[in-house]
Design brief:
The structure holds two protein chains of two kinds. Chain A is mainly alpha-helical. In chain A, 76% of the residues lie in helices and 0% in strands. Chain A has 13 helices and no strands. Chain A starts with a helix and ends in a 7-residue tail after the last helix. The model of chain A has no long low-confidence stretch (mean pLDDT 84). By secondary structure, chain B is of the alpha/beta class. Chain B is built from eleven helices and twelve strands. Chain B has helices at 47-54, 82-86, 100-103, 110-121, 128-141, 147-151, 160-172, 190-207, 218-224, 242-247, 252-259; strands at residues 3-16, 19-32, 36-40, 63-72, 75-76, 93-96, 178-182, 210-215, 227-232, 235-241, 316-319, 322-324. In chain B, the strands form two sheets. In chain B, strands 6-7-8-3-9-10-12-11 form an eight-stranded mixed β-sheet, with helices on both faces. In chain B, strands 2-1-4-5 form a four-stranded antiparallel β-sheet, with helices on one face. Classes of the chains: A mainly alpha, B alpha/beta. At the A-B interface, helix 9 and helix 10 of A face helix 4 of B.
């Protein structure tokens, strides 16, 4: 097992290299550059000044040289400095990470703890009123775009009813609150973003676990469990659920990158101070080092997420043993 | 001998693709204490449906019992509450299935799957050591080599024969009175088949079990059963002691099944001249959603006459303890 993990980790190196090369090239090929963003609107800036900026950022060198320089810094864990404010990229990312983690861990927990029971109950009572109701809900969950739902809920709860704040993570007067006041303030800010980000996933995962459960309930070993004289509860929650969870674990692994990458559009709508919004702002400003930093972290976590899913797989399914 | 299980006029319907399938039609059966009763027939004749409906194991969405009674020591299993049924299912009456590969839960160790049944049916609480001891005893009972290693294995680490032995161990963990074996050896290699059958026969004698053995193979019946019921299209067409069936088969279907068995003298290696083509029964098992009129075997029957077509024959006792459902049968 250890050997397997080490091998998988080593395999990540060429994968990461490939991902960073592609990202690097695309980012640099896209029209406009950091210098244009700073100077484009001002007619007073001469071409010469632009060229000076270019050489200051190292953008006058050939692309492969730029990549090589970036990579040689990266292996020393130096992500460079933001073009925009000159701060260390790694610091900027670390500042944003907790907000994204908080939001996404909560929504992932919500998804799993609600979707799993919904899926299981739908499967056990297939074609019941509950099951059919959930099918409608799932249809909505799949079809409603998150940004649209977000805007509607903001109008309803933020503007019409005035119950919940619609953007950011804190109120303006946050520093003056007591501890519990602060906590309540954050919770209020979390409700809408967590709900909206969980909505689509809820639909997806409940459908997925329903399918998985139905598949397992048809198996012969479920009939054996019943034939043993076990109660229906034990048949479902002991014998069926454990097997139905196996494919769901993969989904968990695949959801991990979203934990950190954050929703670009989504965090921007709610003005949530997370990684997604950082990435979005960096792209708009052509802030290459920040874009690459966010990209590398997201890629790394995606690969680690897949590895974790594979390892978890081996723990819950004894038929899988890695060599 | 005392009747331990009686199936009376059982009819079972299945729903498949909007069609209603009559899987069992007015089937009756009696199992006596300490006997091995064989139920023989081609696939799709209702043998497994019979086995599953005795323990109410047919999923509600797939089918249901229309009428009839299943009396276990005089008590109708079909009218028991779920709670009471669970005191009989897996406890007084156990069942083993055709395919051991898929019948054991892949994610639990063998010890856990056996212990689960022990805990459920032994009313007292067992300590971990006692439990382990009993699991090992059961594995020894079914003659699994290295019971301590087997106990800690997962099902996929065992061979098919070993898995079926584990299934037998699970089914015997509650000291049942009746064991229903639904094609217990069909999925196994021939040599393993023999071992499993020998094991079942031996355990039946040792533990005083009453066994319903479901099979499509008359060879297995000859080795293990005292009595045989032959099923066709969801109904019993002939019933007699094993020796009677082999020597005096009366229903044309039974005869057809017996003639399709090779005997030792006819095997190609033994002699040159005596070769005989094995006879197959012409035609196919009727579509259970669209059964023929009258005797359900008449479209395939070599002795069919016009009188076979309008009405389904009754089961007649032609000589003592030999029942047959054919108007043309004579002793």
């Amino acid at each position: 097992m250890l050997q397997y993990i080490v091998r998988r980790l080593l395999f990540m190196i060429p994968l990461l290299l490939g991902i960073t090369i592609i990202t690097f090239v695309i980012v640099h090929l896209s029209p406009g550059g950091p210098a244009d963003m700073l100077t484009g609107l001002s007619p007073k800036v001469s071409a010469e000044a632009k060229a000076r900026l270019h050489s200051l950022y190292g953008l006058d060198k050939p692309l492969h040289v730029q990549y090589w320089l970036w990579l040689s810094r990266l292996v020393r864990f130096d992500f460079g400095r933001s073009f925009k404010d000159g701060r260390l990229v790694i610091i900027k990312i670390l500042e944003r990470l907790p907000a994204t983690l908080l939001l996404n861990v909560l929504s992932l927990l919500l998804i799993f703890f609600i979707a799993l029971p919904i899926g299981v109950i739908s499967a056990v009572r297939q074609d019941s009123f509950f099951d059919k109701g959930m099918t409608v809900f799932v249809f909505l969950g799949f079809s409603v775009p998150a940004f649209w739902l977000a805007l509607l809920l903001m109008v309803l709860f933020g503007v019409v009813l005035g119950w919940l704040p619609i953007s950011g993570m804190h109120s303006v007067n946050f520093p003056y609150f007591s501890f519990w006041g602060k906590l309540w303030d954050i919770i209020k800010h979390l409700i809408l973003p967590v709900f909206v980000s969980a909505f689509g996933g809820l639909a997806y995962l409940s459908r997925y676990s329903r399918t998985s459960m139905l598949e397992v309930l048809r198996q012969d070993y479920i009939r054996t469990a019943r034939a043993k004289g076990l109660s229906e509860k034990k048949v479902i929650y002991r014998h069926a659920l454990r097997n139905a969870l196996i494919p769901i674990v993969t989904l968990l692994g695949l959801s991990l990158p979203a934990l950190i990458g954050g929703g670009f559009i989504f965090e921007t709508i709610f003005a949530w101070p997370g990684m997604g919004r950082l990435g979005y702002q960096a792209i708009m400003a052509r802030d290459y080092p920040v874009i690459m930093g966010v990209g590398v972290i997201a890629a790394l976590l995606t690969l680690l997420g897949n590895l974790i899913a594979d390892i978890t797989y081996a723990f819950i399914d004894p038929r899988i043993r890695y060599r | 001998m005392e009747k331990i299980l009686e199936v009376k006029n059982l009819s079972v319907e299945f729903y498949k693709g909007g069609k209603v399938i009559q899987a069992l039609r007015d089937t009756s059966l009696t199992l006596k204490r300490n006997e091995v009763l064989g139920i023989v027939g081609e696939s799709g004749c209702g043998k497994s449906t019979l086995a599953l409906s005795i323990l109410k194991l047919i999923p509600e969405k797939e089918g249901r019992v229309i009428s009839g009674e299943i009396l276990f020591k005089g008590e109708d299993l079909l009218r028991l509450s779920d709670e009471k049924l669970l005191q009989i299912r897996g406890d007084r009456i156990s069942i083993i299935f055709q395919d051991p590969f898929t019948s054991l839960n892949p994610v639990f160790k063998i010890s856990k799957q056996i212990a689960e049944s022990l805990v459920l049916h032994k009313k007292e609480n067992l300590s971990t050591q006692q439990m382990e001891k009993e699991v090992i005893e059961l594995l020894e009972l079914v003659k699994l080599p290295k019971p301590k290693d087997t106990m800690l294995s997962y099902p996929h680490q065992l061979s098919g024969g070993m898995q079926q032995r584990v299934m037998i161990a699970i089914s015997l963990s509650s000291n049942p009175e009746i064991l229903i074996a639904d094609e217990p050896t069909t999925a196994l290699d021939v040599t393993i088949q023999k071992e499993i059958l020998n094991l079942l026969t031996e355990l039946q004698k040792k533990l005083g079990l009453s066994v319903v053995l479901i099979t499509h193979d008359f060879g297995i019946v000859a080795q293990t059963c005292q009595r045989v019921s032959v099923m066709y299209a969801g109904i019993i067409v002939e019933e007699a002691s094993t020796s009677e069936i082999f020597h005096n088969p009366l229903h044309p279907y039974t005869k057809g099944l017996l003639e399709s068995l090779p005997s030792r003298e006819e095997l190609p290696s033994s002699s040159q001249g005596k070769k005989r083509r094995l006879k197959a029964i012409p035609g196919q098992v009727p579509d259970p959603s669209n059964l023929p009129s009258g005797c359900k075997f008449h479209p395939r029957c070599p002795k069919v006459i016009e009188d076979c077509k309008p009405e389904e024959p009754r089961l007649r006792e032609i000589v003592k303890n030999h029942w047959v459902r054919c108007i043309r049968a004579v002793y």
